[in-house]
Each structure stands twice: as structure tokens, then as C-alpha cells.
UniProtKB/TrEMBL annotation:
SUPFAM superfamilies the record matches: FAD/NAD(P)-binding domain, FAD/NAD-linked reductases, dimerisation (C-terminal) domain
Domain of life: Bacteria
Protein's recorded name: Flavoprotein oxidoreductase
Organism taxonomic ancestry: Bacteria, Bacillati, Actinomycetota, Actinomycetes, Kitasatosporales
Keyword Nucleotide-binding: no
Keywords, alphabetical: FAD, Flavoprotein, Oxidoreductase, Redox-active center
Length: 459
């Protein structure tokens, strides 16, 4: 009997995790695997690009988990610089274009995995494509930026956007000796936090010498006589720039799937069932940044572009394609970042998320130290906790603080997944020793305060 053929569109985290996992279950005589990747690199850590730019990671190769040659050695036919341009679901085939040769050919499939990722938001502005303006999405983007920095005489950088990538790139450029200005539309940086917590990030960035400008809508990027970027213009001011980084966010890359008639959600991501199979299509799976996932707190779908999810999706898809079984139940929206020594974390809902979901809530904010307060240099942190007003169910946690602050959010992520109340959290048996925590961990102190707020609100 002839081997089945699995076609994978996308050669990064979700796609190649799926291909590799499927190969563990079925050998080449049972399953032929063909993968298309339009870029120059596969199986790499895009999350590491800011740290490569900033000099913490020395070489591009350090960010590559597995080379195309290593995939091919495992009988995965990974075709680089090959872009899928059409999916024919009726004919069960994919049209792919060799970007170097310019030729196109059809490849039939028995099973298909769509892992096309996300595309960075790139507004249509005058000068947006000028030399010196960079996105940070792929290893190629990082490579181009490092080349620009190496040949740029000036030392002024403007980062547009103050989300995770924007904040991390601001730190990377600061480490390289640049004078950094961050422009963003919101009241405070890190709009994934409530404004009162974002203000703490703002203060930390100011303390590092990073100029942060809120409510700044970019209208134009100016160029010099040489055609290179020279300034970024907002409605209120002009900011000189020798290099510009776009960190405005990403959207699911689903144009190919939409053209094939596959179902998309409200955030334009592909919709799948718990096994990551595309709804209504038995032999098509999708994972990574191109899909929407279930929010376990609100019960709605959302789009979250994170490598952790993409790798899990790939593992689950590969197991199901290979004849085993796996499901992805959903997420609670956990993310961590940092700007120099200030750590930033969130999980669950912000206040505006809770309101949008129709949830009444109470909030509690506390300040504490990450170690016993009597130890020299005990790092400070602020913890904000949201709980449902009547039930006391935990809804969300945000943390900003020094060393050891961010990963404490994992306590809250587990509690959210288990649908614990804030009162139940107060009894959690967490590890304690003076170098690691006060007697009452800051997360538990916040839970105690949130419990009191729930009771006061009429539990």
C-alpha cells in the first residue's frame, strides 16, 4: 500500500513540530512528509530576536533549533524558499511557488497542516518602506536590522509600538548605545496591562533613559537626501531617527486559508476543534499564530501569537496525524517580558476584558518584596489581582517588579486553569525560604486582599 502524504505549509514552530511529531509515529514507508517554507530559515526562535539584536545572543545559529538538513535527515522533505499560493480543498492539493526559480507546481495531499503564522502590522504610511525601517518578525528581519545597525553612523532610534516586541527592542537598542524613543497610541506602554500597571513600566523605562511618548499616532516617516529614514512624524511632533523599529503587533496570516474557504473567527484566525483540526475539514489541521484559541476564562476565542502555544499545537497535530491522540483545551493568556531589570507579567483578564465579557469584578493591588524584606536588596514588586464579584473566582493577575517577579504569574496561571477562587489561593502551599520569598508570597498577599474585596462587595 502506498504511503499517505502529509503536506505542511509553514516551516517554523507549529509546522515543523507537527511534521517531526508525525514522523515519530509513522516512518517514511507509511507517511511521506512534504513541508513548504517561504523564508530562508526554519525551526527558529523568533522570540529571541531582540536578545540577538541586543547582543545577549551571539550568533544567528544559536536561535535555530533544527536546520533544514536535520529535518531532511529525518525523511521530512522541507523545501525552503517555497511559498504555498493556493489550497484546493476539493482536489486535495497545494500549489507552491519556488521563489528562486519562479516556477509553480501542484502537490497532492492526504492530510494538510496549515501553519502560516502571523504577519506584522505595517500601516500604509509615507516612508514606511524606507531603508532603516525594520519589522521584527523573522530571523531575516533580525539579520537585516543588525546589518543596518552595523553601518549606521547615528545613534537615534525610534520604536513604534510599546507592546512586548516594542519594549524588548527598546532595551536591545539601549544596550547598543542608542538614544531610544518609544511612540505608542495608548495611555501607557504595555497595553496588555491595565493603565495603572502600565504606568509602572513607563516609570521604569524613563528611569533607564528611554523616552516614552503615549497618545502618539505616527503619520509619516521622513527620509533624507539619501533615501534613508531621518525622522518619525506624529500629529504633535517630529522625532529624529537613524533607525526605526515597528513593533505594532501582528495579525493571523490567513489569506491563503480564507481564499480556500476555510473558517475564520472574529480575529481573522483559523477556527479549529480541540484536536486542532480545522472545523468542517477532516483532513486539514492548523496551529500556531494563524489560529484562534479558546480563552478558558471567558469561553470566547482569541488570537495570541506565542511560540509556546505554537509548539504545543504542533505536537498535538503531529500526534493526531500520526494515529495517536491529543487535544489543546485552551489558554488563560499568560505572558512575560522585561525591560532591563524590570520584569512584566500578566495572565487572565484586564479590567476592560472583564467588562467586555460582562463580568462584574473587584480588584486588589499590593506592593511587596520578592524575598524576605530584611535581606539586602530585596526586589520590590507590584501585584494586581482581579476576582469575580460574587463568586470570588480569580479572573486575572498582573505583576511588575524586580528580579523574580515575572515567573510568579505561573501560580496565577495554574489557579485560573483550575478555576480557583481567590480565597482558595490563599491556602496554596508555596515554597518559602528568605532568599526566595517573604513568609507570605506576594501573590498570596494579593489573594488575601482580593478575598477581602469580594466579601466587602457582598459575597
Amino acid at each position: 500500500m502506498a504511503a499517505e502524504r502529509l503536506v505542511v505549509i509553514g516551516g517554523d514552530a507549529a509546522g515543523m513540530s507537527a511534521a517531526s511529531q508525525a514522523r515519530r509515529f509513522k516512518g517514511p514507508d507509511e507517511l511521506e512528509i512534504v513541508a513548504f517554507e517561504r523564508g530562508d530559515y526554519a525551526s527558529y526562535s523568533a522570540c529571541g530576536i531582540p536578545y540577538w539584536v541586543g547582543g545577549d545572543v551571539e550568533r544567528l545559529d544559536d536561535l535555530v533549533a533544527r536546520t533544514p538538513e536535520e529535518h531532511r535527515a529525518r525523511a521530512i522533505d522541507l523545501r525552503m524558499r517555497t511559498e504555498a499560493v493556493r489550497i484546493d480543498t476539493e482536489g486535495r492539493r497545494v500549489l507552491a511557488r519556488d521563489l528562486d526559480a519562479g516556477t509553480e507546481s501542484w502537490t497532492e495531499y492526504d492530510k494538510l497542516v496549515i501553519a502560516t503564522g502571523a504577519r506584522p502590522v505595517r500601516p500604509s504610511l509615507p516612508g514606511i518602506d524606507a531603508p532603516g525601517v525594520h519589522g521584527v518578525q523573522t530571523l531575516g528581519d533580525g539579520e537585516a536590522m543588525i546589518e543596518t545597525l552595523a553601518r549606521t553612523d547615528g545613534g537615534r532610534a525610534v520604536v513604534v509600538g510599546a507592546g512586548y516586541i516594542g519594549v524588548e527592542m527598546a532595551e536591545a537598542l539601549l544596550k547598543r548605545g542608542y538614544e531610544v524613543t518609544v511612540l505608542h497610541r495608548d495611555e501607557q506602554p504595555m497595553a496588555t496591562l491595565d493603565p495603572d500597571m502600565g504606568r509602572l513600566v513607563h516609570e521604569a523605562m524613563d528611569g533607564l533613559g528611554i523616552t516614552t511618548v503615549g497618545g502618539a499616532a505616527v503619520s509619516e516617516i521622513l527620509t533624507g537626501d539619501d533615501g534613508r529614514v531621518r525622522a518619525v512624524v506624529t500629529d504633535d511632533a517630529e522625532y529624529p531617527a537613524d533607525v526605526v523599529v515597528l513593533g505594532i503587533g501582528v495579525r493571523p496570516e490567513t489569506a491563503l486559508a480564507e481564499a480556500a474557504g476555510l473558517p475564520l473567527g472574529p480575529h481573522r484566525g483559523l477556527l479549529t476543534d480541540l484536536s486542532m483540526r480545522v472545523r468542517g475539514h477532516d483532513d486539514i489541521w492548523a496551529g500556531g499564530d494563524c489560529v484562534e484559541v479558546l480563552d478558558l476564562v471567558t469561553g470566547t476565542t482569541r488570537h495570541i501569537a506565542l511560540g509556546t502555544h505554537a509548539n504545543k499545537h504542533g505536537q498535538i497535530i503531529g500526534a493526531n496525524v500520526g494515529g495517536d491522540y491529543g487535544t489543546f483545551p485552551g489558554v488563560v493568556g499568560t505572558a512575560v517580558s522585561k525591560v532591563c531589570d524590570r520584569e512584566i507579567a500578566r495572565t487572565g483578564l484586564r479590567e476592560k476584558d472583564a467588562r467586555a465579557a460582562g463580568l462584574q469584578y473587584v480588584s486588589a493591588t499590593i506592593e511587596s518584596t520578592g524575598t524576605a524584606g530584611y535581606l539586602p536588596g530585596a526586589p520590590l514588586m507590584t501585584v494586581k489581582m482581579l476576582a469575580e464579584r460574587r463568586s470570588g473566582r480569580l479572573l486575572g493577575v498582573q505583576i511588575v517588579g524586580g528580579v523574580g517577579a515575572a515567573k510568579r504569574v505561573d501560580i496565577a496561571a495554574v489557579a485560573l486553569t483550575a478555576r480557583m477562587t481567590v480565597e482558595q489561593m490563599t491556602a496554596l502551599d508555596l515554597g518559602y525560604a528568605p532568599p526566595f520569598s517573604p513568609v507570605w508570597d506576594p501573590v498570596l498577599v494579593a489573594a488575601r486582599k482580593a478575598t477581602a474585596a469580594v466579601r466587602k462587595a457582598g459575597w
